[in-house]
Amino acid sequence: MRGNRTAVRASDIAPELARIGRRRFLKGGLSLGALTLLTGCDLSSHSGVDAALSTMLEFDDMVQAALFNPNRMAETYPVSAITKPFRFNAYYPEWQVRIVPAQWHLDVSGLVSDKAPWTLENLLALPQESQITRHICIEGWSQIGQWSGVPLHVFLRRIGADPRARYVAFRCFDGYSTSLDMASALHPQTILAIDFEDAPLTPEWGAPVRLRIPTKLGFKSAKNLQAIEVTNTYPGGFWEDQGYNWFSGS
Ligand SMILES: Nc1nc2c(c(=O)[nH]1)N[C@H]1C(S)=C(S)[C@@H](COP(=O)(O)O)O[C@H]1N2
Ligand SMILES: [Mo]
């Protein structure tokens, strides 16, 4: 991140602006680029938001740097930047968080040569990587966290996934789902996270394994994974099926 833009967060934006952005984003199926351009236009015609304009423009830059370009790396941060306390989000309240099923394993299906399910132990035996990145929720807030786990490209190669397949779909044991294009799935910062701040993920943060993809909006970072499928059939997802922009990152 450049200079004074480091401090800009989605949460700095007036709720009013965030609402405009979200509405357009949801209803229009816009890319993030188009969304921010349009919210920029909206800003100038919307009364009472002039003071927030420069913040919003900087937010555009932050989002550009973090999300727009799938070939670029998302910004990484020092340990001191980690957000405390970390914010929980799901389509249900925190008290409804489901515990990890006994006999948990990660199912693998579709265009892969090895469909054997994975235990946590098997995943921990693969190369691990740690990253401190910003998680940006479409609701208009962001936070910096530290996740460690197996780079998804390592896992996909290990199971013999067809890299020419279009999609990688994720299903979670809380009923959630999402999907990625193959290029984003293979991005070096896309990981199957197992640890959160150097301790095993707890159920609310996605135990035992969650997707963590800093080049996309937060809803793509599926928690509590149950199954991964490599496919050419558009998989959609929980929020995608309700109108969230599918790509949500560039
Ligand atoms: N399984 C599952 N994963 C999920 C969700 C969910 O409801 N269920 N919500 C998504 C959304 S919208 C966000 S912002 C992040 C929140 O992650 P956090 O609780 O670690 O902050 O999880 C994402 N992954
Ligand atoms: Mo989110």
From TrEMBL:
Residues of the Oxidoreductase molybdopterin-binding domain: 99-239
Tell me where on the tree of life, at the top rank, the source sits.
Bacteria
Matching entries from SUPFAM superfamilies are given as: Oxidoreductase molybdopterin-binding domain
Instruction: Spell out the protein name for this chain.
Output: DMSO/TMAO reductase YedYZ, molybdopterin-dependent catalytic subunit
- Whose protein is this, by species? Bradyrhizobium erythrophlei
The taxonomy runs: Bacteria, Pseudomonadati, Pseudomonadota, Alphaproteobacteria, Hyphomicrobiales
